[in-house]
Amino acid sequence: MVQNGSNRLRAAGRSCDGVLAMLAVTSVAQGHDDQALALYREGLDLCRGTGDVICAARCLEGVAQFAGQHSQPVRAARLLGAATALRTRIGAPPPPAERPTLDRVAAEVCLALAAYPRDAFAREWAAGAAFGLDEAAMCAADVEVDAGTQTGT
Question: What pTM did the predictor assign?
Fold first, then answer.
């Protein structure tokens, strides 16, 4: 059903960057991690083309959540840093409803990086904050979902 909706929007020639991010959230809830990750990435690519910075940040945050959940805390911290920097540049903080999830993801990533050298979270976050949108998209493209840890399996 999720894929049908995005296909219809594309066929109608309508902008679907923000819609893809919302469809990704639905896919996560349904346990379809691979599909959700693909939707976030596609949304990010469209955002890069349209200049929709808020949607780009939302997509980066979604991919960061996957990176954190799938043992890629360095990428997760960098993506969170990139998303935060984008939002800061345009003065658009995350909506209050999204803040608890982002705080939880950041806390989990920080905890995962505790095994790394001191201040690893701050260093990686700052590295991501220095990314341009293209570099952040490349980082997002490197995130992988381990098939054995998908929520739907």
Answer: 0.83
Q: Which residue has the tokens 């999204």?
A: 98
Higher pLDDT, 52 or 146: 52
User: Taking the alpha carbons of 90, 96, 97, 102 in that order, is the dihedral positive or negative?
Assistant: positive
Considering only CA atoms, which of 49, 40, 54 is closest in space to residue 15? 49
pLDDT tens sequence across 96-118: 998 999 999 999 999 999 989 88
Judge contact between 24 and 147, C-beta under 8 A: no
Side-chain half-sphere exposure of 65, counting CA atoms within 13 A: 23
The size of the chain, in residues, is 153
Q: How many CB atoms lie within 10 A of CB 55?
A: 23
Closest CA to 46 of 15, 7, 25, 24: 15
Which residues have C-beta within 8 Å of that of residue 151, sequence separation ≥ 6? 28, 31, 33
